[in-house]
Amino acid sequence: MTAQHDGRPMTVMVVDDHPMWRDAVARDLAEAGFDVVATAGDGPQAVRRAKAAGPDVLVLDLNLPGLPGAEVCKEVLADRPELRVLVLSASGEHGDVLEAVKSGATGYLLKSASTEELLDAVRRTAAGDPVFTPGLAGLVLGEYRRLAGEPAPTAADQPAVPQLTERETEVLRLVAKGLSYKQIAERLVISHRTVQNHVQNTLGKLQLHNRVELVRYAIERGLDDA
């Protein structure tokens, strides 16, 4: 069965400096129906090939020769902000996780994950869901809360907050609490597609790029506690 994204095969790129691991991940993804459009073994090569191949999801190791994974993430997203990045790392160190998320990664999975967990994480990452190995999601939310407590340097220059509808605010509050689109749809008795539409509309209004930024925005305004 082919993994679909917007009605076409989902494209993925795998970056890891260990050839056997890289090939194994690429093979697992291809066998599950993903279209593996590129692979790379070092940082500079990863940036070049990601820009050329334009995958839906970049599966990225952090420990890369030539250019660290976090820098690869920043460079690629500066060129293609719609790209989703799933970090697949052997490190569960808090500093590595936070650096990856601050660089724009949508999710962070440890290499101890099973093949099924990886495939599910890639699918969810493509859908815009933040995916974290259990235990890391709370760390990331905690960091966003800490950042939210710091005064924003450009607060005075920011335009008035765009008006969200009551339903958009409701969806945003549930996103901030960590619910998946499926769970939000069930909670509000609306379709999965409607939830996605509300999130896309909210991203557009707030000029944010992805769900991770949306969660931070919501936490900054205390919506996760409401």
Automatic annotation (TrEMBL):
SUPFAM superfamilies linked to this entry: C-terminal effector domain of the bipartite response regulators, CheY-like
Domain HTH luxR-type: 157-222
InterPro entries: CheY-like_superfamily, NreC/VraR/RcsB-like_REC, Sig_transdc_resp-reg_C-effctor, Sig_transdc_resp-reg_receiver, Tscrpt_reg_LuxR_C, WalR-like
Residues with the 4-aspartylphosphate modification: D61
Domain Response regulatory span(s) in chain numbering: 11-126
Pfam families: GerE (PF00196), Response_reg (PF00072)
Keywords: DNA-binding, Phosphoprotein
Record GO terms (molecular function): DNA binding
Gene Ontology terms describing biological process: phosphorelay signal transduction system; regulation of DNA-templated transcription
Protein name: Two-component system response regulator
Lineage of origin: Bacteria, Bacillati, Actinomycetota, Actinomycetes, Kitasatosporales
